[in-house]
Amino acid sequence: MALLSIRNLTTVFHAEEGEIKACDQVSMDIPAGKTIGLIGETGCGKSVLGMSILRLLPRNAVIRGEIYYKDQDVLKMNGDQLKRLRGNEIALLPQSPSTSLNPVLKIGFQIAEGLHLHRKTKWEQAWEKAVEMLDFLKLPEPEKRVQEYPHQLSGGMKQRALAAASITGNPSLLIADEPTKGLDAVLRAQVVGVLRQLARETGAAMLLITHDLKVAASLCDQIAVMYAGEILEQGAAEQVLKDPVHPYTKGLLASLPEHGLHPIPGYSPSLLDVPAGCKFHQRCSLARDLCAEKCPPLQVINGVQVRCFFGDQSGEPQQELHNRDLQEAAV
Ligand SMILES: Nc1ncnc2c1ncn2[C@@H]1O[C@H](COP(=O)(O)OP(=O)(O)OP(=O)(O)O)[C@@H](O)[C@H]1O
Ligand code: NI
């Protein structure tokens, strides 16, 4: 059994404009210690999926389906269980150090606080642990840094401090939502280094939400590609990023500068009014009548799970994947 198993997760926002289906029947497994990259265009539901796992969504959101963490359904947890889950089991790595670190509190305090609150560690020991964690994350002069305030640290140092603060509870799963967004190349490389170290040396699994396919390629064991709330393709990172099956994944890769910057024609559909059939059919060069009528089931093609009738290009619609096969093939 995977560390985290998501089954048929659907997250709907009840908004003034109508019902926004941000996640639609998402199933995904995150094995212990593995890094899964979640990629897809802006607004496709990546962050909502991440926040659904932690149940950190506004009141107008309704989550259906199952999210098993170590065999316990997160969607059935009570307040205390959720608190424990967020404090000790699943950590959210915040995006931006400038907004996530408190400018008026010492770095050491901000790291020690989590230990003191969640683990009931005495302050003195929590401070020592903070120094250890900064040292572990290769921050130079950790004893000095814990006494400093965020503005005294460089961007890369702040990233490390933030990473240290998020793993104080010794989590088994990290959720990192666009940790490299808006960073210059140098800082991006540093953050990638910190993430790699977190994953390798803490042994924690990671759900890495990113637009940056290069970052995904360098860190992830597996990749899930999301489009209009659905996972369209998921499997081994090598396979999905080098030899994808789904026309959407192919389009995403072709739109990269190194592949000639060929954008996918058209736009993602509004989540208020998604098209019938395959959600990608209006933008897909392989689409036929069937694609506008029926939603393709998940099936295994070339060892990856794909939601496409014609992804193998043989011209014959594929057989539906049985539930048992899905579990065996599950990423
Ligand atoms: N509180 C909310 N109320 C209503 N709709 C919401 C709410 N939060 C998110 N949404 C909608 O859910 C959809 C998915 O948003 P989400 O933030 O998950 O996208 P994303 O894939 O993370 O995009 P990006 O790459 O830009 O971060 C969007 O259409 C968004 O407008
Ligand atoms: Ni997002």
TrEMBL record:
Subcellular location: Cell membrane
Source superkingdom: Bacteria
GO MF term set: ABC-type nickel transporter activity; ATP binding; ATP hydrolysis activity
Gene Ontology biological process: peptide transport
ABC transporter domain boundaries: 4-253
Cellular component GO terms held in the UniProt record: plasma membrane
InterPro entries: AAA+_ATPase, ABC_Ni/Peptide_Import, ABC_transporter-like_ATP-bd, Oligopep_ABC_C, P-loop_NTPase
Annotated EC: 7.2.2.11
Pfam short name (any one): oligo_HPY
Annotated protein name in UniProt: Nickel import system ATP-binding protein NikD
The species this protein was found in: Syntrophaceticus schinkii
